[in-house]
Amino acid sequence: MRRKAFSISLISIGCLFAWQDLARAEPEDLSLAAQTANLVQNFMASRTDERSSIIPAMSVAIGRDGTLLYADGYGQAGPGRTATAATIYMVGSITKQFTAAAILRLIERGATINGRGEKLETTTAVADVLDEARAWQLEGGPPITVSNLLSMTSNLPNYTRRPPHELDPWGAVPARQLLTGIKEYRPSGYPGSFEYSNTSYFLLSEIMEDVEIRGVSRSYRDILRDEVFSRLGLDHTGFAGDANVTRALASPNYRRRPRFFQPDWLKGSGDVASSVLDIFKWDTALMQGAALTARMRDVVFADAGRVDAWTYYGAGWFVTHKNGIDRYFHSGTVSGYTSYNLIVRNSNEHWLSVSLLANADGIEDIDTLADQIAQVALPY
Fold this sequence. Notes:
Blueprint: H1 10-17, H2 29-46, E1 57-64, E2 67-78, E3 81-82, E4 89-90, H3 95-108, E5 112-113, H4 146-150, H5 175-182, H6 198-208, E6 211-212, H7 220-229, E7 238-239, H8 243-246, E8 272-274, H9 276-287, H10 294-300, E9 305-306, E10 311-313, E11 318-322, E12 325-334, E13 337-345, E14 351-358, H11 366-377
Antiparallel strand pairs: 1-2, 1-14, 2-3, 4-8, 5-6, 7-8, 9-10, 10-11, 11-12, 12-13, 13-14
């Protein structure tokens, strides 16, 4: 789930306009480390009143052009466990970046719709893959496509805001039962306008399971493991319950009663766990062309769903362009955790990444903290 994902702070605007050539000499580690630690620790210390989430632990990674500049953790990941850069957290809606990459990877590899032999494309109508989607086409309007799901332009209601009435948000739900409940929804209008909805990314995860490559179908989780995590060396990324996740997962800190935390409520939209080191590796793989082809990366960072005057939604990323600076970002919050991932690129194609993960939900202004950290790293 998401909150404040497309807010743009005055801090980020001011510092990015002043951004000079990122090819300058590397910073002194001590200076960058000290300034980052000061920012993060002050931010954590300020979250102590009743209106804010107390943050037991937070981890950060900063990279430039694929080189890791600094990574560390602060606070306690659990009883007797100091947070580090290797601490794992649930990443919430950053999951959407992996889901988008996985389905675009399937398209790259020539995946076909089960039983039909037709290739999956971004232009494929969702109803051509999922029977449940046939009820969603409005009279006289175009069908909802895979591209509409990726860009949040399906105009389908967000099921985490309005769960199907027969399903328990605090209990477990099989994915197919959730799909059946969503079938009763009706779009708010013709597809094409932006409306943030976890429904779109849940449907992408379902589509993955109804296609095949060379006659072989796989589960959503196996597809993400095979096509993204393992292939890119994200060894500390997976799902709650995975052995590699359980060993290093930070204990959650809840501001409210946990909901949507049972499988498969957040399938495709918010169910991945990772570390800031792996998020840095993910950003690097995406920017350097290892995650997807250039054509598919253009889909990821496309000006697709128009959010506001400056902001678009591509595929798992919010996108802004201003004064020669491109910003790609997404926040996430699920029960017990908050995340933020930011990539800033200048006109010379140099780029900086800042990733933040914390074990408390509903943290306000984590995007501003990321911008402040970027301001520290950018001038060097």
